[in-house]
Amino acid sequence: MVVIRWGILGLGNIAHKFASDLLKVSGCILYGVASSREHVAEKFSEKFNVKKFYDNYHKLISDKEIDIIYIASLNQDHFKYSIQALSNKKAVLCEKPLAINQNQVQNLIKCSKENKSFLMEALWTRFNPTFEQLLDWLKNDMIGPINYINASFSFNGLSSSIDSRLFDPSKAGGSLLDIGIYPLFLAYLVLGRPKDIKSNAIKTTRGVDKQMAILLSYDNAHAILYSSFSHDEEMIARICGEKGQIYIDSRWHESPSLTLVRGEKRLKRNFNFKGKGYSYEIEEANQCLRKGHIQSHLWTQKNSLELVALMDEIREQNKIFYPMENE
Ligand SMILES: NC(=O)c1ccc[n+]([C@@H]2O[C@H](COP(=O)([O-])OP(=O)(O)OC[C@H]3O[C@@H](n4cnc5c(N)ncnc54)[C@H](OP(=O)(O)O)[C@@H]3O)[C@@H](O)[C@H]2O)c1
């Protein structure tokens, strides 16, 4: 098996979780990491036994030994560093959202094609066994035609500073791009693109959404979706059809269990996740690289483009704009 050599760019909160899961995946190694803060890069490399650490991103992107770079910087920088890596013939797994708007995602896809470099959005939920099970039940028509989806993602982030990545417009903050992307992804994955979107945001004084309510309408179905930084909640996802329902347990986007209900009958499946759940997207990227693919068929570049298009429309409806979109 060809060993895939990974690099990580930006060494914050999610990079730590990702690295810990990467070490559990066979057939790949964490070869290099880069932070703008040298001491952070050094400490990270010691903790995860990384061969090389760098104090700037460019050195990581230029390292000829590295096959694929996981972009774990903030939303406003996903596009910039993904383009640099792809142009340097590196494969890219970029944190969600892949970029902040359609225009940026289109350019990333173009760059991936021109350079024949793999590009995938790190929508890790898509790849875990719970979602494979969900899709399998749907494929086998276990709940009949779907007419209702209800999903949300909330946590109480009110104590975060107004300059935090959650609330700062210059960091492409707001609940939609940070966590609302998950319920939107679920509805899109199961029902596809809606024929109509209605949404309503409660915004901060700096103009990003701290709460977002979304109604997607389809010919024969509704999806009621919600995201918020204002409170905690249980987070169960409900997918309902004419013959039954599927409930993904709390917190559904990272849940190892789900239940199929048909009349009086209940079938619960529980999966033992390898690590926190990031290993499945890593395995998928490894497989794609070994096969020479430039995208995953499980979560395609077109899927990322269509998902960001929904977020663009929702932001437009609520007049949420980011300063770097005009640059
Ligand atoms: N998949 C998931 O489960 C999940 C969970 C949380 C977040 N995320 C996504 O992952 C990304 C990073 O989130 P995080 O929670 O890891 O963020 P974070 O810890 O706050 O920051 C990540 C990195 O961004 C860089 N950074 C921090 N402040 C910056 C600033 N003001 N200007 C420019 N760069 C700055 C730093 O890189 P250096 O190390 O170079 O200093 C930092 O290590 C976000 O896009 C988020 O949407 C995904």
Question: Care to describe what's here?
Answer:
There is one protein chain. Helices cover 33% and strands 25% of the residues. By secondary structure, it is α/β, with parallel strands linked by helices. Strands 8-9-10-7-11-12-13-14 form an eight-stranded mixed β-sheet, with helices on one face. A six-stranded parallel β-sheet has the order 3-2-1-4-5-6, with helices on both faces. Strand 2, helix 2 and strand 3 form a beta-alpha-beta unit. Helix 4 (78-87) runs parallel beside helix 5 (102-115), helix 5 (102-115) runs antiparallel to helix 9 and helix 7 packs across helix 9 (301-317). It is globular, with a radius of gyration of 20 Å. It starts with a strand and ends in a 10-residue tail after the last helix. The model has no long low-confidence stretch (mean pLDDT 98). The structure holds NADP nicotinamide-adenine-dinucleotide phosphate. The site of NADP nicotinamide-adenine-dinucleotide phosphate has 20 residues, from helix 1.
